[in-house]
Amino acid sequence: MPPKKKGGKKEKGGKGGGAGMDEESRRKLLEQMKDKAKEKVNIESKNAKLNQIKIQNRWREIMKLAKLRQLQSQVDILQQIHERQLDRKNAALSGLERDVTEAEEQYENALQAHCTNVDTLAELQMERLATLQRQFEADLAILQNEFESERTALKAKHVKEKFDLVGIMTRMEMDFGETEADARHEHSSFKDDVKNKNLEEKHALRIQLEGTVEDLWKHFQTALNQYNASTEERKRQFEELKLKDQKNAKEIEQQMKKLVKLQLCTSTNPNPSKETISHLKAKMSNNARDYDERNRALREEKEAIQVHFQELKHRMNEFRDREHRKLTDLTVLSNRVLRDLKEKVERAERIIKLAEMNRKLETEQEKVMPFAVVVSAEGDQRDGGSGEGEVESVVLNSSRPNSAKQVVQLPREYQAMEQFYKRFNRVMLDKLALEKQRGALREENEHLRSILKQYLDGISVSEEVMQRLNPLMVVNGNA
Fold it and tell me: Is residue 365 a contact partner of residue 372, using CB atoms and an 8 Å limit?
């Protein structure tokens, strides 16, 4: 039976070989037909490209001829337009040339007329200058005579006033020497008093600052001791837990080594007992669970300690910032106080200097009786000082306590400055009177200047004077 099967297989193989040969010959025929068709397609495509190129060249020549005819027609049109514009421009140029010739003739006529007018004006100006020169020489002689007379009078007056001023200056120098010596003595004593007072205040402020600094240091030390006492127990517990964690880590490492050994044993011994493996796995899971719980508890305790530490640190920083702000405020206040004291000292020195300057300008009566009672306005008017009497009467009426009007009761603090305000008010009223007098003198000066300017404009010649009306210049009967 086996040989028969083999023979049947060979027969089937032979039939399959014949069918394969037919398919292969058919495939070759198809490939040959495809190659021929491709060759025909390539030849047709080449012929189509060549014909397309020929058609494009022919069409290009036709388009060139059409474009040439179009451009020639446009050139003819542009040439005609250019000729028309050229004729128009030539006509315009001829008209402009005629206008220029007419304008030149008009310019020559106007120039000739202008030259004649200038000559006549120059003659008139020369005549006017001659008359003005004669008037100027006459006025100059008069002014020279007046100037010489005034000069001699002013020289004599100057010599007399110089002699009087020399006497006044010698007297003032003597008085100034005496007042300067007194003022130097008072200034030195006042300076020593202010210096001693400032030193005492500075020493007291320094002692106060040292006390506050010591109190702050004590508060800081107490806070530090409280913090150390509160965290000592937690620190000790943390160290114990840390040692316990290291010990547990070592045990875990040993157990891992044992597990590795067991795995090696199981790999060498392929038939270990199932009970031993399950027992070791259960033990390993129990140990891992216990160590995970211990690690979690240690981690939570560590986080709690860290949170408490951060809270205490934040509180300590806040306390430190608060104390630093207090110290900065204290230093700022001390600097401000020192600055205020310095300003007061400078103000006092300035007041002393002003008092020394005012003392030079005081009269003999004010030096002897600086706070004398002001007389009434009627007596001053009888003496001849009308303006000054009115000012003093205002001061007197304002300072009388038994006046008919209602008097405002001032506090006692103002009574110490009453004499000062009396003198200050008097000085201010004198200042107002002087300012009023200065305004009147300024107005008089401006009036005299305007009169002098009018006179100088009348005797001088300038462009500004020529442009305005001048009674001294008469031309053709017109001023």
Answer: yes
Q: How many whole angstroms from its chain centre is CA 333?
A: 30
Inter-axis angle of helices 274-361 and 2-268, to 10 degrees?
Answer: 60
Residues 413 and 435: their CA atoms lie apart, in Å, by 33
pLDDT tens digit sequence for 324-372: 888 888 888 888 888 899 998 998 888 888 878 877 777 777 766 665 5
Q: What is the DSSP string of 158-212?
A: HHHHHHHHHHHHHHHHHHHHHHHHHHHHHHHHHHHHHHHHHHHHHHHHHHHHHHH
In angstroms, the CA 70 to CA 88 distance is 28
Closest CA to 316 of 211, 231, 212: 231
Q: How many CA atoms lie within 13 Å of 457's alpha carbon, on the beta-carbon side?
A: 15
Q: Which of 326, 307, 312, 323 is nearest to 225 (CA)?
A: 312
Residue 440 pLDDT level (bands cut at 50, 70, 90) = very high
Q: Reply yes or no on whether the pLDDT at 474 is more than 50.
A: no
Strand partners, 478: 475
Dihedral class, residue 384 (left if φ above 0, else alpha if ψ from -120 to 50, else beta): left
Closest to 460 in 3D by CA, of 119, 139, 194: 139
Q: Would you place residue 441 in the very low, low, confident or very high pLDDT band (cuts 50, 70, 90)?
A: very high
Radius of gyration of the chain (CA): 64
- Give per-residue pLDDT as tens, 57-87: 889 888 888 888 889 888 889 988 988 888 8
Q: What are the residues whose beta carbons fall under 8 Å from the beta carbon of 294, sequence distance 6 or more?
A: 244, 245, 248
CB atoms within 10 A of CB 392: 20
> Hey, which bits of 297-456 come out as E strands?
none
